[in-house]
Amino acid sequence: MRQPPDRSLIAILALSVLLRVGVALYLGDVVDAPPLLTDQRSYHALAVRLLEGHGFSFDRSWYPFTPPDTPTAHWSFLYSLFVAAVYALFGPHPLAVRLVQGVLGGALLPWMVYRLARVAFRAGEKKGRGDEGTGSPRPSLSSLLYTVVPLIAAAMATVYGYFVLYAATLMAETFYIVALLWSLEIGLKVGILLRDGKKLSTLLALQLGLSLGLAALLRQSILPWVLVLFAYLLWQAWRERQLRAAARPLAIAGLLLAACILPWTYRNTRVYGQFLLLNSNAGYAMYSAQHPIHGTRFREFDAAPLPEDLPRGNEAAMDRALMRAGIQFVLDEPGRYLLLTLSRVRAFFEFWPTPDTSLLHNVGRAGSFGLFLPLMLYGLYLVVRHPGLVVHSALLFLFVVFYTAMHLLTWAMVRYRLPVDAALIPLAALGVLDLAQRAHSMKWRPS
User: Fold this and answer.
1) Which residues of 193-223 are buried (b: 16+ CB within 10 A; e: fewer)?
2) Which among 220, 227, 228, 232 has a CA at the least distance from the CA of 260?
3) Is 135 helix (H, G, I), strand (E, B) or coil?
């Protein structure tokens, strides 16, 4: 009974890899392809400098505030090391990174979406049987939640336009989303075990800590969500009277997360002479995104000029000073900040073609969120009608709401929304299955 789904999943993953390798070959062995994704320049330059023995630095003044030959902590340490490792094997060729990442990301991202959907709908499938007349999904739909919906979700992640595009770029998006989905899967498992009164294993705790640690090393903006995630799991443990049983595994997960971050905190303290937890980009993001140059309409690609009195060279001090300045912008003009935050809704959810970007980006936007948004909303409607699915998918909804709000309040771009898209794809797959069943029943209904 399990063999056909397994073969189907292998075929889906193979197609995913082929699509991403094809885009990687199309983009070629140049850094600035596609245009507008300028972070690729930074990771390419950092990887070359690492291989030359210069550490995390640049040979010239670099965006947004790094002087030449000065240690930087602005960019992901882990992803820089990944690019450097590929360059060490194949030479400084961006195409090599595109191909390696296309293969790894092409296999891992749809697979993690598949796993997330299986966990999210596993208990809901069990509770969904025999719910005729209660407003929940039909029994035939409930019986397929654990088997068919995950395959549909993996297939949708395979052809999701922006997932395909970013897997072939020198950027951390793909691996970050994979690590994040892994952590959400484990978080859902922890919730199910707590509700069932079962013991949380050490292996599960290690997976939670490692997945969050990898995600943080790829993009530190996950850290506020980590606090919410642990608070939610502790609340759930308290609610189920499992707080004592959950305390040790969650402590193990927290310690492993800290073990991933603290070596870089130590490095930063040695380099800058003061505390910097991980990366030096939070202060600049807060400062630039709230700067008066935006007025009340956020322009995500406009970099704010740095203050003239900013202490140059020490990124820990600069990060702290810019964070204070960004918060002061909010306190000085709370009304403007509110309007600016509302304007970021467009920057975060934009899925329509725009004249200020390339054809590839326009096709990617429209062929991903623009195409799947109606299905995501319909899947959300189906889940809300089914109390069992709402309970077991609550963590996904909490993540979507918190992660969206966090970026609307700070800095919003379409690519920052991609983790939310990945978390919502299982809902879109549920919508596809329901619509397919409805179409099939209408097709064969006697006149």
Assistant:
1) bbeeeeebeeebbbbbbbbbbbbbbbbbbbb
2) 220
3) coil
Q: Per the structure, how many domains does the chain have?
A: 1
Condensed to tens digits (0 to 9), the pLDDT of residues 265-274 reads 999 999 999 9
Return d(Cα 83, Cα 89) in angstroms, integer.
Answer: 10
Secondary structure (3-state) at 66: strand
CA atoms 313, 316, 319, 321: torsion sign? negative
Distance CA 434, CA 283 (A): 45
**pTM listed for this prediction:** 0.92
Contacts of 445 (CB under 8 A, 6+ apart): none
pLDDT tens digits, 146-198: 789 999 999 999 999 999 999 999 999 999 999 999 999 999 999 999 988 88
CA angle centred on 265, ends 264 and 267, rounded to 5° = 60
The DSSP call for residue 53 is T
Q: Which alpha helices (DSSP H) does 350-447 contain, by range?
A: 359-366, 369-384, 387-392, 394-409, 418-444
Task: Report which residue type is found at 149.
Answer: V
Domain that holds residue 141: 3-444
If you compute the radius of gyration of the chain from its CA atoms, what whole number of angstroms results?
23
